[in-house]
Each structure stands twice: as structure tokens, then as C-alpha cells.
Design a protein that fits this description.
Elements: E1 16-20, H1 27-34, E2 38-42, E3 49-50, E4 55-61, H2 62-70, H3 74-84, E5 87-93, H4 105-118, E6 123-126, H5 129-146, H6 162-171, H7 178-188, H8 191-196, H9 199-202, H10 210-221
Helix pairs in contact: 1-5, 6-7
């Protein structure tokens, strides 16, 4: 029997993954394309990969993970990930977690415990970029093929149902992911009410903080200035 290629079995239905543009030079994106995955590069405000309308991935090498403990970025980034995606996941890539830097092992264990218990974010360890790509494909396949979930509705708007069109419009607001668009519409009930909501009202929705509110209001209130062609 012929040996199965790595991409076979993954791509009966072609899988799509949205990657932050900073991930494009990485070996992960290269491995994904080798597996036959459609990779769309975007500037993501939160996370490194989007695998469905509910799953967002933060990928950290062991070195970056340890540095983010030192400079206290880790928990704030993880909190934002959890506020943006219904199913946030942290991929921890690499080896020698406890021996690369002069960080007490208890600090590392404490950070891992806070992620898993306080923020309810699963941590998936991988050895390298290739294994990270395989994990991404496995999750994306479950979401897109088995669960028939969309990656993002901000693509081709033709043929969308009315709820999809409504989410498409709201997701165009700055910092609003597919998950946040759904939350906003469920809270306010209509696109018009989302657009006319006050800053305080917007912040009643989980995942919409003061900074995101300011950006949304800035876009909605600014006068349009067409650039000369």
C-alpha cells in the first residue's frame, strides 16, 4: 500500500487558517502550506492564529514564554485572548522550559497554573514548528470539518444569510472578532443598535474594554476623508 502523504486525510475539505502577518516568515506557516492548508495572513490584534469563529491560538516559543513572565506580559495577553475567543488555546513550543533562564521553577509553575485554572486556557506543548502546525490542523479540522464552523465571516460576503451579513458588518469594527461580533449582536439585538450604542453600553459586552471602545467610537464618529487618487 502506498505511503500516505502528510496532507492526506487532513484536506478532504480544504482547511483554512488565519495567521497573524508576523507569523508568515515562521516555519509554522510553511508547514501549514505543505499540509495543503489555505493560510490567510492578516494583522491580528489578539492571538497568532484563528482556527474557527470560536478558537483563537496564541503561540509562544519557550524563550518568549519565559520572557513574558519576566516582563509581566503573559497574563495580560492571556486575559485578552480569553476575552476575545470563546475557546482560547496557548501553544507552548520548544524544549527545556525549566533550564533556559534564571527563573525559579515555582514562578513558571505558577504561571502555568494561572493560565489553566484562573483563565481557563488550555496549554498544548509542542516540540517544534512542524508539530505546532500539525496541532493547528488537527484543531482546525475538528472545528471546520466535524463541527462545520466558519473560520471568519470577514471574507467573501456574497451568499451570506442575514445573520451572517449582520455579523459581517459588525466584525468590520476595529478589534471586533467574529466572536465579539456575535456577542454584540446578541446583546443589542440589531446592527443599528450596536452602531448607536454609547461607550458605557458597549462595555457591558464581555471583551469590549475602554481602549477598544475608544477605537470603535473614533471610527464611527470620524469624518470620512477621501484620498486623492
Amino acid at each position: 500500500m502506498a505511503e500516505q502523504k502528510p496532507s492526506e486525510g487532513f484536506t478532504a475539505k480544504r482547511i483554512k487558517i488565519i495567521a497573524d502577518h508576523r507569523e508568515v516568515p515562521s516555519g509554522v506557516v510553511h508547514e501549514l502550506t505543505q499540509l495543503g492548508v489555505e493560510v490567510e495572513a492578516r494583522q491580528l490584534s489578539v492571538g497568532d492564529f484563528i482556527l474557527s469563529d470560536r478558537v483563537g491560538i496564541e503561540r509562544k516559543s519557550v524563550g518568549d514564554f519565559l520572557q513574558s513572565i519576566v516582563d509581566k506580559r503573559l497574563l495580560s495577553q492571556a486575559k485578552q485572548l480569553g476575552e476575545t475567543f470563546e475557546r482560547p488555546v496557548l501553544i507552548l513550543e520548544g524544549k527545556s522550559l525549566y533550564s533556559r533562564r534564571a527563573i525559579h521553577p515555582n514562578a513558571i509553575r505558577g504561571a502555568l497554573a494561572a493560565l489553566a485554572v484562573d483563565l481557563n486556557i488550555p496549554i498544548l506543548p509542542t516540540r517544534d514548528e512542524k508539530e505546532t502546525a500539525l496541532i493547528l490542523v488537527a484543531i482546525a479540522r475538528r472545528e471546520q470539518v466535524e463541527e462545520a464552523r466558519e473560520v471568519s465571516i470577514r471574507g467573501e460576503p456574497k451568499g451570506l444569510t442575514l445573520p451572517e451579513q449582520q455579523r459581517f458588518v459588525v466584525e468590520g469594527l476595529p478589534g471586533v472578532s467574529a466572536v465579539l461580533a456575535k456577542r454584540l449582536l446578541e446583546y443589542f439585538g440589531a446592527v443599528e443598535r450596536v452602531m448607536s450604542a454609547s461607550g458605557d453600553e458597549l462595555q457591558q459586552v464581555h471583551g469590549i474594554g475602554p481602549e477598544k471602545t475608544r477605537e470603535i467610537k473614533r471610527v464611527l464618529r470620524a469624518e470620512y476623508e477621501a484620498k486623492a487618487s
